[in-house]
From TrEMBL:
Keywords: Hydrolase, Protease, Signal, Thiol protease
GO BP annotations listed: proteolysis
InterPro entries named in the record: NLP_P60_dom, P60_peptidase_YkfC, Papain-like_cys_pep_sf, Peptidase_C40, SH3b1_dom
GO molecular function: cysteine-type peptidase activity
Coiled-coil regions listed in the entry: none
Claim: Hydrolase is one of the keywords in the record: yes
Keyword Hydrolase: yes
Domain (NlpC/P60): residue spans on this chain: 318-451
Signal peptide: 1-47
Protein name: NlpC/P60 domain-containing protein
Lineage per the UniProt record: Bacteria, Bacillati, Bacillota, Negativicutes, Selenomonadales
The family this protein is said to belong to: Belongs to the peptidase C40 family.
Amino acid sequence: MANNIVELLHVKIRKGSLSMKKKILTAVSGCCLGLCSMMFSPLPVFAADSIAITGQLATPSYWTKHTVNGDKVLLPQQEINTINRTMREKSTSLVDLAAYNINKSAADVKEMILAAQQDYRGEETPGEAYDANGKQVPTEHFKQVKANCNLEGLTGNITGQYALITERTNMRLLPTADNYFDDVTCLHYDSMQATALDPAEPVIILHKSKDGAFAFCQARHYTGWVSLGALAVTDRQHWQRYVNPKDFLVVTANKKVVAVGGAWTVLFQMGSVIPLASNKLQPHDTWLAYVPVEVNGVLSEATVKITDDDSVHKGFLPCTQNNFIRQSMKFLGDEYGWGGMDDSVDCSSFVADIYRSMGIELPRDADQQELAMPQSLKFEGLNTAQRFAKVKEAPVGALLFKPGHVMMYLGQDAKGNPLVIHSASSYFTFDKGQKQKHYIRKVLVSDLQFQNGKAIKTIDGLTSAGFCTK
């Protein structure tokens, strides 16, 4: 019988503000990929050629039914605001945009740009990198991209510009839209990708590329290069309406497409905040909301109608265990999207979007999330039985961390097996000494039993369980 072993293929490992993207061929269990389950009552159903659990255990109704006081509000908004401040203090990536100082020295901005390059900082070649056609990226191209940072254009004192994102767009480590895939056999993991930003996200522009096509921006949770075509510059007063909107909708669906004047559409992902033009529900159960539009690089807002349905909620959702469950299950089966690519989520953006729909602002990357969690349970020094017992102490919605990966805890099945939901990349099977790699690239439900290439079970690789609730 084949022994299924999970292998970590692509993870972000953060050291302060720097990143390393690794392919760990020794198969670190559970990192950015799925975990299989041995379930009993009800019996598990596995998708063909997949480690994903399907059936009842992959439905929100199963878990909400088995969660005691699942609809009890755990944190009022005032406490959430305090938690958000605490996480900003503990994280090196989260910033308070409302209080952000837009006046910086050229040296400070230069250091920010270099730090944002992560693995590429100080490098003269792109290493193993392939373009969209699977061809090796030339060193000359890499040098041109680095030169496009326009560091020599940084002089004196810098005054940032207030701006808004006008369409879902990529934030890049360097000013290029060209792909730098690190595996020619799987053109999905772009090493230049930092994250994705949704429409109506406020940012601060601190510098522009030599070719005038990109802006170096500070967002609420990341820094990097954004296409100028996706930015609308505005004044602080209008910008503040997006930083701290008085009345707003939060996107509660995994994805929400909004029509802008019948001319085009914009895509929002879960947790996105859309300011309201009126706090009163309009005829035909619609809301009037603002969507930022760019005209010659400057903000021109459009007022749009958004139907009052279960894809949006006025204000943040209540922070409850059942909402952690319901929100996570809305992504079930969605494609794994490294750094927000493919209009989807990776492991850390998956949990960040869930939490943000309830007003909790997590850092973007898994290691920063682990550092920022207000409360945590540690696994260091525990044996396997003690680790299982420790996991069961965590509340529903807690985040389980191991190097480079994060999963959300759902609870226990009828036999006491803890299950998680997460955005998964791939897994391996081993049969008669033959190894086969299976890309799954989905959001799925799994357990903590699968081994890595060194026969270390996922449960034994956990570093902590983090949570915000009491």
